[in-house]
Write a structure and sequence with these properties.
With 1000 residues, this protein is of the alpha+beta class. It is built from nine helices and 71 strands. The longest helix is centred in the last third of the chain and has 65 residues, at 731-795.
């Protein structure tokens, strides 16, 4: 609040009181264009920079760009929507006088004052003691009420004021004045005293102020009055201008008086007065209100809208200030402080704020102007070359006709003229030399000339299509330079140190010691320069289509030495009063001049413009910045709900503003959404930002702004908000997903471990089975054969025939071992044919086992009978699964054929919807109970191998056996694992059938 109070108390800049109204920048917002509804009756400004506008349709808040109707929050209401008077107190409270009462708004609370309920509040004022005074209109008695510290005291119930107190004013001495229907009252200090007006009329004193000498000035009886020595008398402005229908008064901070009338308003300043009305662009003729804001802008509320007047950094002088014509061809400063202006209607002279034309000035149309080293003024017109000296003009040469685009000269009385017909050298009024342009290598006339005293030569610059620069000396053309991009040369300027500055269509060229350096837009300038001029502070001004640029001379010199160096410039454009052009305005010279007071004058499209380098208007106030509203998915967000936005928000639009009313269109903004934007973004007069599909998190929107002079409010404003997450955007949901993902990975890892372990177990089991087969067949046979051979060796010497028999037996045992080994290898390499069914494979296996040689455990001459039974409709089994079932059945059949001593062996395959069952039964000797309990006979691995295969395919293996009662084994596997495809759900049903196949 302290910073705001300091800003509020420091003036930025005010309107130059020496200028006329039409020399200020004027902007109008009209009712007709829809900016407002109804006339602006009162204007005020709160410390946050907003303008408040009172209308009969309500109260508006205006930021210089858009106006927004204002209503109190929380369901509160103003006494009336028809607002008549506004006033902002020093503590920032806005006082609102309406047609039905008085209210105040301190930014958080609306307060109404019952003493004035139902009454039209006609005037408001805060005195130096912080007492708020309010005048009202009542019938029969108007009131004057004093409000301080929540206490209201009213006066005038005795009708002493008549029906109204229409105006209030506090003068420099602290006197409180009230303009009432009954006259002028000095209310404080001391006892109240009334001063009657000469003529009693209703609604007498409409406004009060002071004259320049401190007397009370009033608008009364339809005219201007002043109060002097206790008497009211007529007052006339310091000119012959008559003020018709005055109603409002404003004294600006530099003493200028603004008088609102029913025909526009009158500006009184420096003993002069000028009028600005609807015909000049005012929004309406009837002025209801006048106001000066904290930046020095003057605001006028009219019956047609709202008008703003601000100072141009570079004002202009036109026919409204006395020029004979707005078309100025050349401008030249004289040694006596005056400025000569060559217009299309004749020569004009500006001196001490006054413009003269005609009379002693020549009446012909001037073209180019020149001032020689002795201060003598020269002018060329269609009538020839004229000089001014001794108080008069003299025609001094016999040149006539044509046009002269530039004139230059030396200190010895020599003049050179760039004439259409060539370069004319004039001395003592006579043409002593004429050089055709072709002799200088050009077909077109030169556009600019400058005399080089050091080299005693002439620099000639050419325009149009054959631009370039030529040095001319003693009738000969010397060094020449072409222009970058082949453009024209608009202006030449020679420094005291001999440096030539050329304003060209290709940039700013610097010629020094025969070396040319051109500075362009790559260095921060413009590619087209029309003229240059250096002021008294060694600042160089460049007129370009990009704007009027101000550059420090040191910047240009540094960049000329290093062409890759950037140049820092200050640019003035149309909003500063500069009329921009891409080509020279008139084609005569000089286009710019520096007066003896240091001000620069240059020709413009309308009159002549003036630069005062040491008194440029500069706005020192950083603009207050405010985030105004937030829209969520197109609807304004109610801040009372907090700043946690709902989940799944699509669009968030943030509207912000900066309260600089001088030139709102030139306000720069920088914004950044922390949590979204990586860096600041800078825009010009763009007052909202839309974000789409923001993630749920906390955000902070920051915005800062600079005014038209580039002064930044870096503190700016900020808004902290957050977006709630949807359930699937919450941390717990993400954690849950992560946990599920980890669990899935863990499950896959465990599954893989299980698969590897199972594969390893299967490989181990297979190796164990191979070991068992080798142990039970090949190794045992070889061991028996080895024993027989050792026996044969031992007995051969004693009993040769018995030894030979024993050796033959050993050879037979070895052949049998080799045959058993071959069968074992075939079993390892055996694959299941994809089209073979299980019953066929088991039948083939039984045939092979039945045809095999008898084992040691088989009874001699026994051949078991084998039978295979299939129940249910046969199903196709998965190939790998079928191979495992086949190997289990084959191992069971091998045990039955080799070890059971059975006479009958049966196999049964049962297909049903839920299971695949395989049973193998025999009527042999059975298995010893100890072997069943231990799971295997020592050194034999057939049953453990069967159990391992059954477990691997997810089946259940059962065995029943008793000694002498045979053996039965059963393998049961779920259909979902056994069958290659799901069982048919069609209407066809397969009945059970039995098929028995006898092998032997």
């Amino acid at each position: 609040m302290l910073a705001i109070a300091i800003q509020w108390s420091i003036p930025a800049f005010a309107l130059n009181p020496s200028l006329d109204i039409n020399q200020y920048a004027h902007t109008a917002w009209t009712v007709r264009d829809g900016f407002f509804q109804g006339p602006i009756r009162s204007i005020a400004q709160t410390p946050d920079g907003f303008l408040w506008l009172g209308t009969e349709f309500g109260l508006l808040r205006f930021d210089g760009v858009r106006s927004v109707p204002w209503t109190p929050p929380g369901g509160e209401r103003l006494p009336s929507a028809n607002v008549y008077r506004l006033m902002v107190a020093r503590d920032g409270t806005l006082w609102i006088g309406t047609y039905s009462g008085l209210a105040s708004w301190n930014g958080a609370r609306l307060t109404r004052y019952r003493e004035l309920d139902g009454k039209l509040v006609t005037s408001l004022l805060e005195d130096r003691e912080a007492t708020v005074w309010a005048g009202s209109l009542e019938v029969p008695a108007g009131r004057l009420c004093a409000i301080k510290k929540g206490t209201t005291q009213c006066f005038g119930q005795d009708a002493s004021f008549g029906r109204t107190v229409l105006s209030l004013f506090e003068d420099g001495a602290g006197n409180l004045w009230a303009g009432a229907e009954t006259g002028l009252w000095r209310w404080r200090p001391g006892p109240p005293r009334r001063y009657a007006l000469p003529t009693a009329t209703s609604w007498e004193i409409q406004d009060l102020n002071t004259t320049e000498d401190g007397q009370i000035l009033m608008v009364a009886n339809g005219g201007m009055k002043e109060f002097v020595n206790g008497r009211v008398q007529a007052w006339s402005i310091p000119s012959a201008l008559k003020v018709a229908g005055p109603n409002r008064l404003l004294r600006d901070r530099y003493g200028g008086l603004w008088i609102g009338t029913d025909r526009g308003f009158v500006h009184v300043h420096h003993g002069r007065a000028d009028v600005f009305s609807r015909s000049d662009g005012l929004s309406g003729d009837l002025v209801w209100s006048l106001f000066e804001d904290r930046e020095g802008n003057i605001w006028a509320g009219t019956n047609g809208g709202l008008d703003r007047f601000r100072e141009f950094a570079i004002p202009s002088v036109t026919v409204k200030q006395g020029l004979t014509d707005d078309s100025v061809a050349s401008v030249l400063a004289a040694t006596d402080g005056s400025v000569w202006l060559g217009t299309r209607a004749g020569l004009n002279k500006w001196s001490q704020g006054q413009i003269t034309s005609g009379g002693a000035l020549p009446g012909d149309i001037p073209q180019s102007l020149f001032r020689d080293g002795h201060g003598r003024m020269w002018m060329f017109s269609r009538n020839g070359l004229t000089s001014f000296g001794g108080g008069g003009f003299t025609r001094v040469s016999n040149i006539s006709g044509g046009q002269v685009h530039a004139i230059t000269g030396d200190d010895r009385g020599n003049l050179w003229l760039a004439h259409d017909q060539g370069l004319f050298h004039v001395r003592d009024g006579f043409v002593v030399e004429q050089v055709a342009w072709q002799q200088l290598g050009h077909k077109q006339v030169a556009s600019t000339l400058v005399y080089d005293r050091d080299q005693e030569g002439l620099w000639v610059g050419f325009g149009f299509k054959d631009g370039g620069i030529v040095h001319f000396d003693n009738g000969q053309a010397g060094p020449s330079y072409s222009v970058a991009n082949g453009g024209m040369v608009s202006d030449l300027r020679l420094d005291r140190d001999g440096t030539l500055w050329a304003a060209t269509e290709g940039g700013l060229s610097v010629i020094r010691n025969g070396r040319v350096t051109t500075l362009t837009s790559r260095n921060g300038l413009c590619d087209n320069i029309l003229w240059t001029m250096e002021d008294d502070d060694r600042e160089v001004w460049l007129y370009t289509p990009c704007g009027l640029m101000r550059v420090a001379r040191s910047e240009l010199e540094a960049s000329a030495a290093n062409p890759n160096r950037a140049i820092h410039t200050t640019v003035f454009d149309t909003s500063d009063g500069v009329r921009l052009h891409a080509i020279p305005v008139a084609g005569f010279g000089p286009p710019v001049t520096k007066a003896s007071d240091g001000r620069l004058w240059f020709v413009s499209a309308e009159g002549v413009s003036i630069i005062d380098p040491r008194h440029l208007s500069f706005n020192k106030l950083p603009p207050p910045v405010q985030v105004e509203e937030v829209k969520v998915d197109g609807k304004v967000w109610d801040a009372s709900h907090g700043w946690r936005l709902p989940a799944l928000v699509r669009d968030v639009t943030i509207r912000y503003t900066a309260l600089s009313l001088v030139a709102p269109e030139r306000v720069h903004f920088r914004y950044k959404l922390e949590g979204q934007d990586p860096d600041w973004t800078e825009v010009v007069n763009d007052r909202q930002k839309q974000y789409t599909n923001l993630k749920p998190r906390n955000y902070r929107f920051r915005v800062m702004a600079s005014n038209n002079s580039g002064v930044w409010n870096e503190a700016g404003d900020s808004l902290v908000f957050s977006i709630a997450p949807a359930f699937y955007q919450t941390n717990w949901f993400s954690a849950s997903l992560a946990a599920v993902f980890v669990a899935i990975l863990w499950g896959l890892y465990r599954l893989r471990l299980y698969q590897v372990a199972r594969e390893f177990s299967a490989q181990t089991g297979e190796r164990a089975r191979i070991a068992r087969d080798l142990h039970d067949t090949l190794l045992q046979s070889f061991q028996a054969s080895l024993i027989q051979m050792q026996t044969a060796r031992n007995i051969f010497p004693r009993r040769p025939e018995e030894g030979i028999q024993t050796l033959d037996n050993a050879i037979g045992s070895a052949e049998q071992a080799i045959d058993e080994g071959r069968r074992t290898i075939q079993d390892l390499r055996a694959t299941v044919a994809p089209r073979s069914n299980l019953e066929y494979l088991l039948t083939v296996a039984a045939q092979q086992l039945a045809e095999a040689p008898e084992s040691d455990e088989s009874l001699p001459g026994t051949h078991p009978v084998f039978g295979l039974t299939v129940e249910g409709a046969p199903r196709i089994l998965a190939p790998a699964f079928q191979d495992e079932v086949y190997r289990i059945g084959r191992e069971a059949l091998r045990n039955a054929f080799r070890h059971a001593h059975a006479s009958h062996i049966e196999a049964e395959i049962r297909y049903d919807r839920r299971h695949l069952r395989l049973r193998i039964r025999d009527d042999g000797k059975g298995i010893d109970r100890q072997i069943l309990e231990e799971g295997a006979r020592a050194g034999h691995w057939g049953l453990p191998g069967i159990r391992e295969r059954a477990s691997r395919i997810g089946g259940q293996f059962d065995i029943w056996s008793e000694a002498g009662a045979g053996t039965e084994i059963e393998l049961t596997v779920p259909a979902s694992r056994a069958y290659a495809r799901p069982q048919s759900r069609g209407r066809r049903r397969f009945g059970l059938f039995r098929k028995k196949t006898d092998v032997i």
